[in-house]
Design goal:
The protein is 63% helix and 0% strand. The chain has 217 residues and is mainly α.
């Protein structure tokens, strides 16, 4: 079950019609306000559509047409929806590499996330490493995740450093990554972040501390 029941109930023809329409459907426009911009709403909508389309072979074929388009929301949605080990092939990996070398940062983040999901690490290591100190905290966080997965022997060092990073997004992402990968060696460091100054970091630390101490219900 996705975020929007309207998409879950839609036919392939309806989904592709929504995808090709530059406007949001009327039933979604009500959610667009000052706190949830049109761009954000369209990005989420495209992603939800893409994941539903990716459930069928016809839909996956449709999405491959959007690997290199200038529409960032559609390009990112198409890439991330097909970033699955079952669909890993030369075409999706080439598209991830191209996205990493593109702008804006959202495309680079999608490429890093997608490569991790595919468990393929073709991006230039030096270029990824240069993003660790980027002003965009989410881009830096995914660069760290990518490097930690592509070089497991450095994972604990990278994530321990990330847990102490001054950028909240980096600390939050490091908590989630440590929990997902069951790095119990980082339990104490994550436990200390349960009183972090940032609410999102506190939440991530609290949840992943419970996971790592095997007390998560």
């Amino acid at each position: 079950m996705g975020l929007y029941p309207e998409i879950d109930r839609a036919t392939f023809a309806q989904m592709t019609a929504w995808w090709c329409d530059p406007m949001l459907p009327a039933w979604l426009l009500a959610e667009v306000d000052d706190a949830y911009s049109w761009d954000e709403a369209r990005s989420v909508f495209c992603t939800e559509l893409a994941f539903c389309l990716a459930e069928s072979e016809e839909g996956r074929g449709f999405l491959t047409n959007y690997f290199y388009l200038s529409d960032v929301a559609q390009r990112c949605a198409a890439l991330i929806s097909l970033a699955h080990k079952d669909h890993a092939d030369a075409a999706i990996i080439a598209a991830m590499i191209a996205a990493f070398h593109a702008q804006p940062a959202k495309l680079r983040i999608t490429a890093l996330m997608g490569c991790c999901a595919l468990d393929h690490y073709p991006l230039p290591r030096d270029e990824v490493a240069s993003l660790i100190n980027d002003a965009d905290g989410l881009l830096a966080a995914w660069a760290i995740v990518y490097l930690s997965r592509s070089n497991p022997s450095m994972a604990l060092t990278l994530l321990r450093r990330a847990l102490a990073d001054p950028r909240p997004l980096v600390r939050e992402c490091a908590c989630d990554e440590a929990g997902d990968r069951a790095f119990t060696e980082l339990t104490e460091a994550i436990g200390q972040l349960r009183i972090d100054s940032d609410a999102n970091v506190r939440k991530a630390a609290s949840i992943n501390y419970l996971i790592l101490t095997d007390t998560y219900l």
